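quick one
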Amino acid sequence: MNTHVHWIPTRSRTEAAEDATELFRNTYNTNPAGCWVAPGRVNLIGEHVDYAQGISLPFALSQVTAVAAAPREDTLVRITSISGDNTLQTEVDLKDVGPKNPANWSGYIVGTIWALAEAGVVPLRGYDMALVSDVPLGAGLSSSAALECCVAVAACDLQEATAEKDILAKACMRAENEVVGASTGGLDQQISLKGEDGHALAIDFRDNSSYQVPFDMEGHGLAILVVDTNAPHELADGQYASRRAVIDGVSEKFGPLRDQENLNPDQWADENPDPSGTLDAEAWRKKVRARVAHVQSEIARTANAIEELKRGDMQAFGNSMCASHASLRDDYEVSCPELNMVVDTAMAQGALGARMTGGGFGGSAIALVKKADIEKIAQAIADAFAEANFRDPRVAVAIPAAGAQRVEV
Ligand code: GLA
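structure w/ alpha-D-galactopyranose:
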């Protein structure tokens, strides 16, 4: 079989900024005051541990969301946005923004401005905005963080406000957690703001410290292939929150999971029976133990993987990726048939490692492959998906790129 391989289209940052600027002119009949971009991300390892004081190793993608913006005198935010085939238009008064309002995509934008104002970083003032994006929506590549972070840097620049990236990240997270109502853990915003060309970022969520780790796959003759499975994932929100509820609950009772060597969470499981009411006490204990095992093993694995990367042992790093995937699939149960198929196919075709990336339940997987094998592996994945009657996947070579920034047009 030779199925058509779909590549994720990517503009350069300048092209994206130019397109946002043109969209702004066409929409508002005037020039924007400037243009800002923020990237999506892949996470190399350290999955579902950011909300458990764990360690993650993401890098920022070259694919960005770009916003062209101009400040207004009032508190209205007018938004026009084009992402792929979706064009969206809306306006929101910042005075109406707050917890769970608006709990849709515009909440990422106006929620960020609201949270920055709440933190005293910028005044509560409106903007006209035009956005374009190459970070595919719903692909698990943090299109929401890209949206929040480009708006955050735009608002700060336009109000001549200076704030540490951690303060911006916190405001972006508030938009996501409180306004949109997604209980995510902060990984995506940090990397979208702090990414650097040619580097991954080792983040320790215990104290939010981070440092850049050179990530030069070219130098090893390797590449990171990212595959958006295009799998439908309607269940995602509830499933993410239910995983998090267990980890939050167990951590509250026993302290950070990272510090507990022989933690047995049975007592917590008995005090907090299966909220869905489907599992009996023993089955629920087993499930809670598996959830805890994932978080604990993933934190240790990520610490090791960072060392493997630093000493250039890419096969060991690939093995850690595979072990991470197995843990997410079997213990944390956040994978899905499409993600497993990407991983299994890539490994069968000679990848050094592969795993789901991001929250799971659909979204994207990554594979560490020899540069010479990129086309072959992309083709094998497209063929396997066609054979299984899955939707067409989309692929890209993921290039570690810079975080949110202003782009002169
Ligand atoms: C999503 C969330 C992040 C993180 C990952 C899983 O991307 O937004 O905070 O929890 O899932 O690692």
